[in-house]
Write a structure and sequence with these properties.
Two copies of one chain form a homodimer. By secondary structure, chain A is of the alpha/beta class. Chain A is about 50% helix and about 15% strand.
Chain lengths: ~350, ~350
Amino acid sequence: MGASVLSSFSGCSKSQFEDKNIITANNSSKVNFKLATSWPKHFPIMGEAVLKFAERVREVSSGSIEIQVFGKDELLPALSVFDGASTGAIDIFHSGPYYWKGKSLSISIFGGVPFGMTPDEGLSWFKYGGGMDLWREIYDRYNLYPMLGGNTGPQMGGWFRKEVNTLNDLKGLKMRIPGLGGQVMAKLGVTVQTLPGGEIFQALQTGAIDAAEWVGPYDDEKLGLNKVAKYYYYPGWWEPGATLELQINLNDWNKLPPEYQVAISTATYESNLTMLARYDSLNNEALQRLLSSGTQVRDYSTEILTAAQKASFALYDEFASQDADFKAIYQQWLEFRKRIYAWHKLNEGSFTNFVYSQF
Amino acid sequence: MGASVLSSFSGCSKSQFEDKNIITANNSSKVNFKLATSWPKHFPIMGEAVLKFAERVREVSSGSIEIQVFGKDELLPALSVFDGASTGAIDIFHSGPYYWKGKSLSISIFGGVPFGMTPDEGLSWFKYGGGMDLWREIYDRYNLYPMLGGNTGPQMGGWFRKEVNTLNDLKGLKMRIPGLGGQVMAKLGVTVQTLPGGEIFQALQTGAIDAAEWVGPYDDEKLGLNKVAKYYYYPGWWEPGATLELQINLNDWNKLPPEYQVAISTATYESNLTMLARYDSLNNEALQRLLSSGTQVRDYSTEILTAAQKASFALYDEFASQDADFKAIYQQWLEFRKRIYAWHKLNEGSFTNFVYSQF
């Protein structure tokens, strides 16, 4: 079922509003949208941000747009939301582009890739570097209109039973790591597992796996990953800026009056800004708790990072040879990445290098 | 003159809307606000973001809130906007908290200080680390209600005729650098100048000054600073996250119906996100042009950075001993900074260290 566009409001003539020079939504229709997410409705931060988005849309549209939020499995399974919104069974979904690689390899770029861009770099690419236009072009084929759905910030690289320093240490290691990060790890000899979040704790505890990545200190602590044993905790390189998405059925979007489109798109900015700010706030506190309770933080060695980067770009070259869209978007993205890396290395990196070295 | 709150709309009874369960702004009044900025009305990025903010507020309020934007000197001189909004001569201003240190030393913290936090770190502090509550408490005394007004990203550290490597190289150097950065440089022996932007080019060209800082590649190029000579260009440490502000007269704010407050505050998120994204986009392109045309990029030496950091924190200790508000806010801010530095060092710094090193 698509958008329920109810009867037009006619309790009061249009001219009464025009006399006051107040252009309002009241001579338009009320809209009811169904939004499904790939996570539980009240999933910390991510799920909460979606509920806040729906609330804000209702408020800034003076109640004219009502978005009803459904968590994973309430209307659709987590990975059916794309098709659901594409066909009009639902109107909007909140998920991550990294889930839809099977539809088009090119989609993975929009979600952030190993050795990709940080959140601010990604936002600059989407908004002013051509990224959003490319995203719209691709999703147009699936009858979807893309909007930014928030960012987790650079995710952590997981918990390891033993320190990994060399490429040899990775060989045969059984690690829970999904997505492109998993594909790269597989190239480095890791035996990749793709357990759902809820099964990670037990798999680590029983020794069924040797390592696992999830999100970051706040979420990892919630799964109890720090309590399985005194694991080594590594920063990540496969999700340096995991971009989430709010996708709306294109017919729904095109039928909306411009002021309704503005209400929805304006509300997405709040989700984007506050989601990252909240992750950063809860993660910085959780990290202190982890460190106090004995978590050992380690860095990936240059040997591993160099090999992982090489394997990542080899993977992108494979994708480019298989998919013309991936190739075109990747080349454009790569040029932007090069320029913004040079800029952030200079203005932000030189500063943070110095100040972080003291912490 | 304060807000012009016009007559209530009464062309159609409230119950007609309630019947349709549409809560609208139409049974409230139309509001006209005057907003003055500390920069020219169409100042690139910063000024444009304010115009976009006003447009968005009008749109999401269905035309009920009209914000008329006035550039510097159109209604008030650049540095009179604070008092203007405080007294109600205007309703809103857009400026930078670093201008108001003379009112209360504590205000400088909200604008970002030397060796302070990056944009994302600052946002996390404001939104979830207690920063916004402290800002509201301070500005409440001036009859102002603070909202975030955007961020430039870490600003550059200026153009130098000669390389500066040691503290000795800074002694007696005549440099255009205002604000706290200037106070710190003065402690390091620099002869500080505070020319307006429009006079920097000539002062550098004639040799009246030896060095000057402005904003970043895009804005610096507009002033022609790269054309004076083959100057050395350094990254900065005094404005790692220059936060701008949108301040609204507190009486105006309190009189607004909740749905109008939401319309205004929601629109600020777009300004915040897009301003930084645009700076990052235009700066990364401008940097490439500067490098191609011969600009020499250098880093401050550890000797200078270490001394500058020490001088900065000595300055904050002086402020803390003079001002109880500064002391309280500074201590809270410092705790947050410590935790978020540790977190970003781990998740983002470890990643960017590796990838930026190749650019």
